[in-house]
Amino acid sequence: MKKLSITALGSAALCALSFGAAHADEGMWTFDNFPSKTVKEKYGVTIDQPWLNRVMSAAARLSSGCSSSVVTKDGLVLTNHHCVRACAQDLSTDKADYIKDGFMAAKREDEKLCPGMVAEILTTITDETDRVNAATAGKTGEEFVKARDGVIATIEKEGCAGKEAQYRCQVVTLYHGGQYKLYTYRKYSDVRLVFAPEMQTAFFGGDPDNFNFPRYDLDFSFVRLYEDGKPASTPEHLQWNANAPTDGEPVFIAGNPGSTERLLTADQLKALRDYRIPDTLILLSELRGRLIRFGEESVEHARISDDLLFGVENSFKAYRGEEKALVDPTLIAAKEKADSELYGKVMADPKLSAEIGDPWKDIADVQPVQKALYETYMYEEARAGIGSDLFGYARALVRAAEEKAKPNSDRLPEFTESRLPLVEKRLLDPSPVYPDLEQLALEFWLSKLRENLTADAPGTKTFLGKDSPETLSKKLVASKLADPKVRKALWDGGMAAIQASDDPMIKFVLATDPASRAVRKEYEAKVTGPTDRATEKIAKARFAVYGTSTYPDATFTLRLSYGKVEGWTDNGVTVKPFTYFGGLWERATGQFPFELAPRWQAAKGKVNDKTVFDFTTDNDIVGGNSGSPAIDAQGNVIGAAFDGNIESLGGSFGFDDTVNRSVIVSTAAITEALKKVYKDDGLVKELTGK
Amino acid sequence: MKKLSITALGSAALCALSFGAAHADEGMWTFDNFPSKTVKEKYGVTIDQPWLNRVMSAAARLSSGCSSSVVTKDGLVLTNHHCVRACAQDLSTDKADYIKDGFMAAKREDEKLCPGMVAEILTTITDETDRVNAATAGKTGEEFVKARDGVIATIEKEGCAGKEAQYRCQVVTLYHGGQYKLYTYRKYSDVRLVFAPEMQTAFFGGDPDNFNFPRYDLDFSFVRLYEDGKPASTPEHLQWNANAPTDGEPVFIAGNPGSTERLLTADQLKALRDYRIPDTLILLSELRGRLIRFGEESVEHARISDDLLFGVENSFKAYRGEEKALVDPTLIAAKEKADSELYGKVMADPKLSAEIGDPWKDIADVQPVQKALYETYMYEEARAGIGSDLFGYARALVRAAEEKAKPNSDRLPEFTESRLPLVEKRLLDPSPVYPDLEQLALEFWLSKLRENLTADAPGTKTFLGKDSPETLSKKLVASKLADPKVRKALWDGGMAAIQASDDPMIKFVLATDPASRAVRKEYEAKVTGPTDRATEKIAKARFAVYGTSTYPDATFTLRLSYGKVEGWTDNGVTVKPFTYFGGLWERATGQFPFELAPRWQAAKGKVNDKTVFDFTTDNDIVGGNSGSPAIDAQGNVIGAAFDGNIESLGGSFGFDDTVNRSVIVSTAAITEALKKVYKDDGLVKELTGK
Prior knowledge:
Two copies of one chain form a homodimer. Helix content of chain A is about 45%, strand content about 15%.
């Protein structure tokens, strides 16, 4: 749960939205369909193939749900602090708190492996739409899902055959099934933490300032890619530009926006508005309350729960923004108008209408089924375990053992050959498990399962038996799966070892997984399958009517957005696009979350107060873009995107460039801080050559 | 926050609702407008004036937000356990936990005063509509509110002149201002706890079973009215009938339904749907999370937070039901149709339309203003202090001192002569204050104030200054207001003593109250005033078009509903209207909240398993009806209403008698339990004469 890994940017002036083609600086463009012509006309900047290739080669997707960029020839990678927050917590102990105090490797040997982290750099894109369509022709519901997932698994396996150790192949569904593309990634499974500032420096202002501006956050960190135990050689990196941009300067952001809903129908948006997002907000709020109190119980409880609480609060705020956008009646009205326009055009064209049918009705028909299955599906399958590592390990072990025995194309998608290496790495990398926090997470999940399904539901009896959530959680926390050796033995031993295990969490998952799988199967057959099939058809209709001069909804794959440094006007108040170091001293109150880390208290008067700290641009980015390089016209890195403004939060559903802003920490600020505050000459030299 | 003191019953099949006149067994009728003719026709039961007078004389409203009935000549009062839960907690210590273990006074001298509790029995109703209308004629906005509240204060003062010690006068606004009636109550300020079962017996099944049926809750308690230190003489009590009713038998429920929204316009319902209820659910969820974790920290934390958590969970579930009803598009559509029908009839009548104007437009115009002021009004005024007793004491002391100096008709309504005695009693009765829980409540309020108003809002600076919510709360919890003597000195000393006080909470309220009062004044001028004025006009239109053969929205004043013992059908499953003691043993798992209190574990085989435990009827009741007597055709008490079924939860907005059910604990069960489990022969004799 990362700051920019959940939601999407959007629009306050929603009535001005159009759902047809892209406008203004809107758009999260794929690298094989970037509107260079528009950019040339609007900004006079030439984005040619070499420029695109260079940026693509330096942009790395992180398995922590973030983006990043390679910035030196020795594999040094710039990302956000909040993208390595979980890593810093995993590496910490009750003696060394790298979140609170920061982490600075004095030399390369001190750089530490981030458990479970993989970095992936996109190398090629090929079109597989025809092959997928051929495999799914004439199929619906569960059959359609099975055929589609099967052919995808096969394409991925064939695409990386013989080079699996260094590459990963992923078929990406664009335009909700309008296109299927094979993305091939160079992967790095040894990613080490190099530098992270103090949390209080990276996240100054905390939750109150989150998604706000002006902002004074040094939300950056460095990790390094390793190969064969040595820093990777990365000649095609971005060049570090330590000069801040000027107001109005063109800016490009390359990264992996996670998810947007701009192509959904009005019916789908109503499901989000009426129960999906409200349910999520209620769930996150109670978990937030439990975690806040947990963290107040002791310094150690605060330390071990910090990253989870941060993720919960960040998600909460993002969903809250989405909810506020959805209840504005103009949004749904505009979407209904767009739906009906496209529908009208399809119906007016006999050939198209014969091909497309009425997918809007198909989606409408799915809605009551989805609503009826939703809670069971969420609590028994999609949200099962809510934050419990032990449950996550057990489920991965049980399911992997079961799935590995099947042919690749018959497996659950998350256990196909192309995905197994990441599953394995996450399972086997050592990473701390905190029993008190496990108890909290499991109790919470099981009590919400009982509450939402009701005490007498069959699912409640399957998961709880006659136990209370508190008692059962206590039994499960006795699991030995926190020990990576235990996990390794079960992974290697397969189903036989798992069946023979007397670990309480393994036994619990073995007993409950048939119920989870059953509701998943039903949900896919009755909800996901028909929905995906219908949205594919709507995508085809959209291509037929509007052409392909638009961008697909975000899919946590590499995109490029263009824009410029720009502030905005909020209820008549002009917000300028820059903050400076000097403003930090003015905002500090001495009390959390507005207090300074000791190094910064000491730095007053020693750093240049006129250095640009954070800045805003009108690039169209969303959750998942965290850590994305902000790039100047020459292709050099000038910052790392880490947030959006509050106005941007509703915009999973559309983009309004009068108010939607990206928030970026400048390379100028990072450089000045490394020199004057952290005195890390080694890093400064590696970045700037000086 | 009581089980039936927050929300209202309603309808799952909302599309079948009509918003014109009452249907089926719908209706919360005032005692001066009961539809005896309809009841005679439908049930063959004669409800004449003597019947009504007798029931009215025995029905007591409790200041804990509940209803009750006098059931013996010595002032013994039947209500719910959850209506005295706060009292039981106030009387408990870390040595004696009356919530967990129950409270049973062995003799009258052991009966204990419930802090802050007052019981009120309605004696007369007189119409004051003309007098109020004369005072407010031609006034709007703030002027209207001032004139209305002023004349109400005057009527109340005059109505009880010379008999204030024993009576309370209250002007009740019915039909949203269509009628103003003076209700005169005989009041009892010395109410003592007589008997409360164990929480686990009264609330078996806990939150999971709350608002569900079948149900096995002995949710009853007894308090006693005292006068001059002796049990009050109450010859006009209800007769105890220890026989359970039969299926289909007519049942009457007399009590104080708290609040319904059946007469609101569609615009007002949308405000509830789009932000008022969602905001409340989010707030309650986080507080719930904090309290759950707090209670897990120690036995003592569990004990002191139990009642607050219960109230939060109960409110949460009730609002959740309302939210689910509101997002069903048929509800708002039906309301829009009803609005537009009435509007059409008004416009078609030139005389009526000249008199009424367009109040629907007035209400529509208020909506954006309300939305803009809402958060500030809630966090600085309406919800200020969220659960903190210390803040509540300080605000009452500061405001009372200020208001008492003004003429009665110029005061804030809660400090007029007719209300001051209850304010004083609540302030001065000794009642425990728990510093740990105060810290939790204050931190929560202040952090939500900052979050919802934003860190840079003027209000946030007024309330927090440069402090964090945590630090400021710590300073405020050092207040000495937990000591009733300190409160008494400040109450008696008035504004001079308050200004001179160095108590941190008093100083905090003195510093922040101008901001709270300012936003309240603005909200009343721009939101409440125009809304009340417009709803008054709509009420007049409704009377003119539909006549007065309907009932007013609930106002926590005495009402009578009629109905019958009846089950219902839930998704094809028939739910029978009775549970029996025998079912309790089957449902018990031995784990919270499905475990039995020790006395009941021992009672298995000793009580008659065929005794009716709880039963359901189709009476139209809502929150505030908790503790209401269920009465048979002869006017005898046969149970105490304590809940509604889950289908009833959306029905603040309308009643559907195919599925809305009241849930009642039977006198049969209470009698059997007193005899066989609690062996309280004294109470049995007092109730039954045997």
